[in-house]
Write a structure and sequence with these properties.
The complex is a heterodimer of chains A (219) and B (84).
Chain A (H helix, E strand, L loop, with lengths): L3 E6 L6 H9 L4 E6 L10 E4 L19 H11 L4 E4 L1 H8 L6 E3 L7 E3 L2 E4 L15 E3 L2 E3 L3 E3 L2 H9 L3 E5 L10 E5 L5 E4 L17 H9 L1
Parallel strand pairs in A: 1-2, 1-3, 3-4, 4-13
Antiparallel strand pairs in A: 5-10, 6-9, 7-8, 7-11, 11-12, 12-13
Chain B lengths: L1 E10 L6 H9 L15 E8 L3 H16 L5 E10 L1
Antiparallel strand pairs in B: 1-2, 1-3
Classes of the chains: A alpha/beta (219), B alpha+beta (84).
Chain lengths: 219, 84
Amino acid sequence: MSASVGVVIFPGTNCETDVVEAVSSLGANSELLWHGDENIHGVDSIVIPGGFAHGDYLRPGAIARFSPVMKAVTKFALEGGPVIGICNGFQVLTEAGLLPGALQKNRGLKFLCQPAVLRVETTESILTNKATTGESLHIPINHFEGNYTCNKETLKELQEENRIVLRYVNNPNGSIDDIAGVCNKKRNVVGLMPHPERACNDLLGSTDGQVLFRSLLAA
Amino acid sequence: MKFSILVDIQLLEGISDPAGATIERALPALGYKEICDVSVGKTIRFTLEATSLSEAQKTSEKICSLFLTNPVIEEAKIVIEELS
């Protein structure tokens, strides 16, 4: 049976169809999970896609965190279920306390929508188990609040525990230690600012995102 | 008792503040060259019903730490006024 990927939709989410397309192209089934529903319908993994959940009011992810679906997502994550948050989804996961740190506004004054090169820093995560350490991936970014920050103690912990999953080769937004993606201690929850679902088809200029979704499906 | 609550949220020192930086860069064009350290935060006002000032303070602080601010990047000051 094909793996089933739950794709969470909050009011204002706008990348869910891209994620569905990306996982479908790899032979997986997907199920859209409405934020007001506390049921995740027995999916094998969960993606919180990008967009502007609840209009990004107050702070990106601040209100989404209290949506009913997040209770089920949190339970699933704490039981070891694979969860990834892409862009706004990463912001939701930090606000929900499932990942450390926060995403502040980009260094410089600009919203950034451009290609980026990422380096895979570890294959010990549900997002990179099919990738190769040191591998370069061409995956675009599209964000204003993508500048990862955390306190010194958290950064030291992330470094020592090898929990920085992806780094930017040329840091576009000021993220501390060039961080593009991090995972939790159990390595089953990963957040990343770049959009792998936009790099899963030759027509889009890169298929480098596929290895990340293949990893998720294998997790 | 009803209390008017004003929460003044500012970014912590060192946190990226493009709105503040843009305003600071625009001020010299108006002739104000002596201004620095511009920062842009947000204020949130609400009315709260509580049995005492200390309860209003406690509730406001809880809402602030749980929801209104992210302590990784922000800090807040709470101003409470009893409504007659």
